[in-house]
Write a structure and sequence with these properties.
8-stranded antiparallel β-sheet; mainly beta; 28 strands; 2 helices; 12-stranded mixed β-sheet; about 450 residues
Length: about 450
Amino acid sequence: MGGEQGPGTVVEVAYALAWDLAVRALWRPLTAQAARERDVAGLPYVVVYRLPGREVPLEVRLVSWRDHYVGVWAYDDHGRRTGELDLRLLDDRSRLLGRRTRKWQYTGPDMAEFDDACPRLTTELFPDGRGSITQEPEGARGRTFVTVPDAGIRRWQARPGFDDWPMVATQVGPGPVELRAALLGPAAAETPDGASEAPSSCWRPPRPARPGPLDALFRPGTLVTDGYHPEMTVVQPRRMGVLRVPSGLLAVSGPRNLAEEEPAITVPLPPGEYVLEEAQVHFGYDCEWSQGWVTRTDTTAVRLLTSETPALTWEMCLGRDDDPRLLVENEIFGFDTDSATGCFADAGAWKPLHELFERHLVREEPDAGENIPDSMYFLRTHDEASGGELVAFATTGDGTYPVWVGRSAHGDVTDVVVLVGGMPTVLQKGGADFGAGRPAG
């Protein structure tokens, strides 16, 4: 995309296994044929466009079809990223969704890349027509304006062939662009060895948020920090009774969202009764208001135990309409709350349990539910007809909370965990593993 500009401008094209962000350089260069083969196989590779003799790139394209992802990054003369296009391969694999576009407008040559004071614009789009445009004219620390994209905004584009990608960068010099293959050194691979792992400074496809060592939060003696308190000690988890799930389908949701006819998240389980626990940490700090050292114990997570077997793997549980191909780096799906409240419940009796919750909490009908004192779990409702129950718990704020499901080596559910705040950083693991506990039924 250079336009009708007179004499041509030569742009060199090179391929590699990865792009090293730290030094803005190719890692393990590839021949065009080797890159083409990786494209067909869906394996990650990168394409870099440069002006001859120039060290910084004009544009970098990052491709990983197996991850449904293509990224296009534009750079300025100072090597700073000025634009970023996040494309996702959806539907019948012939179309790309423009999932997210970000632009940075640096106010001077000395401004650092992604400086907090840099004006920026972010457009987010989804396949169902939703989206947002976020303007930050004073950077990340200034005012923010959020609007809805115009109905005519372009969301989709056809998937180009390997040789058909247009350049997005436009300021490349006078005249139309003439693409030429960059000269390759002897290290350029025809058939690269995929066993070598790229350095941590290299680009990789976006990954959804990961749970962290959740089991450590339930292991007494583990040392953690939340970033404010330098050292917090995990204490014995508190067992807060059981939850009856006779339908065999667990609901995890925000019970005060009246617009929800169905729970946000469901997890199939064997019908039964399951132990409820709170993970807690003990810590001390110098309190300005008390003018002295104080200690306290806080809850970091709640969980429902389904097995004595410790979890071997963890996964983010998805709702009915959640598509993990749309998640950007460290993004989550989960249940939403605008009342700092979540719940575990029998999904088979969701509607009557939800109604009992509202009757007890909002209408203050004492017989509709049971208050739970001195706990992050604060209310229980019981449906007489089915035997199903709902237990509500408090979170530390509003927003979206992911639901983490632990599984054994055989794939069976062992734990269902919700972090009621952020995930603390583990400093040192505690003593012997704390057993997951036996289900009551």
